[in-house]
Amino acid sequence: MARVLVVGGGIAGCMAAMAASQRGAQVTLVSRAPGATALYAGGMEIAADLREMRVLASAQPYHPFVRLGLNDFEIVTLLDEVCYHVQSSLGRVGLRVAGSWRTTGWYADVHGGVRPAQLVPESVQPGELGGLQGKRVAVLGVSGVGDYDAVAAAAALAEAGIRARPVTAALELPPAASLSDLVGRPAPIVRDIVDAVAYPPGMAHVPENGFELLATVPSPHGWRLQRALDAALGEHGVQVAQGEVIAVRANGARLATALTASSELAADEFVLATGRFLGGGLVKERTVREPVCDLGVFHDGRRVDHEWPAHLRHLEQLSPHPAFRTGLLTDDRLRPLDWEGTVAYQNLRAAGSVLGGYDYIRGYGFGVPLLTGWLAGRWSVTD
Fold this sequence. Notes:
Blueprint: E1 3-7, H1 11-22, E2 26-31, H2 50-54, H3 56-59, H4 64-67, H5 72-92, E3 97-99, E4 105-108, E5 114-117, E6 119-121, E7 136-142, H6 150-159, E8 163-169, E9 196-199, E10 210-212, H7 220-235, E11 239-242, E12 247-251, E13 254-259, E14 264-266, E15 269-272, E16 283-284, E17 288-289, E18 298-299, E19 302-303, H8 309-318, H9 321-324, E20 326-327, E21 348-350, H10 367-382
Helix pairs in contact: 1-7, 1-10, 5-10
């Protein structure tokens, strides 16, 4: 039985662990703490439409989907597969997720913003703006909660052609209460004659005509997702260890163990799914580096240690987006490259937002972690 060690507990790491376990591996996942997955607002963007994906190779040649070397049919089939698996796995542990990567909906958040998403919790899905057209919607505000603007949320819905207006409920809350203080409290019943009621996220027993708004940080949707992923790992028989991997030991071109402050974890195959800057998968000091394996870090195919740092810093002063495209590059089997552009270790794969070549916030935020995590776990067993 192959031993697979996954480093990172976000959605990419969880997908890798479940995929490897499904194929008969003995899987251990080690993570230091929840990463960016726990901050998720409630909507997953998986992929752009098919027309945009067809020109991805010319528009974004270092995008992880392009690096895989798959054709349109293979990408579409894999997206269907991973979305089915994540929806079924989360549903079995109590978090039902609606939608399809093929259809984009638009949803309001607690501050009056409107965001696109393809997969959302079933508690959010009735709030899709297209389905609310012409309906009367009450947006529930709570007196004394300072980080939630029901008036702005109602205005966003009204701008989208929905007959929305704010209503206010009074609850017993601590002074200077925040949205976090509403989590788990019973949702107040709105007596007004309306077709639907928009609630701040996290409340319990939302009525049948109610739906949840998308969140901001801290996110009840993110907490639910992380808890559901942890439960799904248990259902798949994955052993989970708390700790931070700080280094690795190798025998030639193969990794042998991963080191934490208190233990040495041996495995036959390794998956690095440590995230970007928030998760600690990349560290930005004078330049950007990968701290565990000292892998190469690239921006638009060029190494950032000395070849292009001045130009990259100039771009980042103009806009933060270039930093979101900085990360690891892999071969077509998700094996990350070293600084010289060759495969660093034969039994190491990388997945998720630690990969470079794409903007996490622009259309593929969850698609890249889901698909690359799934393939990294599968290939760790089958290759």
